[in-house]
Amino acid sequence: MDGTLVDSEKLWTIALDDYAAHRGGALTDATREAMVGSNMTRSMRMLLTDVGVPATEAEIDAAASWVAERMAELFADGLPWRPGAQEALRRARALGVPVALVTSTIRSLTEMALETLGRDTFDLTVCGDEVDGRNKPDPEPYLKAARLLGVDPAACVAVEDSPTGVASAEAAGCLVIAIPCEVPLPPGPHRVLRDSLTDVDFDALGELFARAA
């Protein structure tokens, strides 16, 4: 979702920077880059370490609540689409391809984002707080989505923008369309690099889906 369908990674940067300043510190560029695609718990642990605060469970929970509240304020102002995302979702729906949203973002914020994305756009959604702590880059988010869709992960195409997300999808056995947003993505044997969703041939994917079905 973040960085793939909507250009919300920049909003995360605002919220994370605000929290760092709230704690009297500053978020480094290297740490922010490492957070891209990560779940809330892992991101808060890195953030607290960056500002010199012990990353205890209580501190992580408090930081997560603070950042989630700030993100809710930012999400409420609306989310800008990534290039080609709206058309990609429309084409997938028109072609009858099952679509799952697999995001590291927590459910409460994802529900806000769905006001922009459209709840009927997806057959199901899997959020970062719904995988029993087995978040990206663990394959479980994509494996769970495939189980709920009733499909083989090897028959799935994942669209990702971060190294963490790509690693998760590849570990699950999916082919990955890798579209970098905030951080670069290197080539790999199980990924296809594209500059944006406007460069993806969804009609060809629909033909592959039809043959597989």
Automatic annotation (TrEMBL):
Pfam family, one: Hydrolase
Superkingdom: Bacteria
Protein name: HAD family phosphatase
Transmembrane segments: none
Species of the source: Saccharopolyspora hirsuta
NCBIfam families: HAD-SF-IA-v3 (TIGR01509)
